[in-house]
Design a protein that fits this description.
264 residues; alpha+beta; 2 domains; four-stranded antiparallel β-sheet; 8 helices; elongated
Amino acid sequence: MLRTTFRITGMDCPAEEQLIRTKLAGTGNIQTLRFDIPARKLEIYHTGDPEDFLPPLKSLHLGATLVSSEEAELQGGLEADRLQTRVLWQVLVINLFFFVVEIVSGLIAGSMGLVADSIDMLADSIVYGLSLFAVGGAAARKRNIAAAAGYFQAVLGILGFLEVIRRFVGHGDTPDYHTMIGVSVLALAANAACLYLLQRSKSREVHMRASMIFTSMDVIANLGVILAGVLVYLSASKIPDLAVGTIVFIIIMQGSYRILQLAR
């Protein structure tokens, strides 16, 4: 087996990782991909010609260059992959469950912060799902699913922005801060559980570390909604809720753009 190392100067976040995974699907005899995002490095364990990977990587315009290729053994591959897959499934289920809880609660409470945070949960679920789905299946089907997810997320983000504008110009009541704070505390506990599961896996793989980063950002979003709920209580105004909702919707739109890049 060969270990071929590429330097990819434009790879600076998990979205590029998923883009590369999808692009390389069905290319050569790949055993596994190992990413080091901070070092802008990709290691491909495979058989066959290392040069086969360079054209698809270059087509992404991320500045890919072949660094080295040598004989190597894949250490702890299958068992580690099974453990990571199990943990990612658990995190995916938790995120999907709280997406439903938060969006229903947000609509009932009239809180754009909760609605935006729920869609952020959905965005993370999409990324985790694409990671799991990348293990097998036809490349064309993966791209179709990624495109559908990206457009769906973009539509939700646009509708969210329009609703924020509608409420800002005078429509809609002050949100129920009790529900905002209570549901966000539960979501915070759920994200803490996700972090525990990810850390308990003791995986040093960059993909798992990236999942921890996703979940850590969710914790920050949860704290933002809790703070907005407190400010709504103190000010009797919907502005803090709309401000937090706007910030999270911006993040959501950026995520949809990344996913649509992946689909291409």
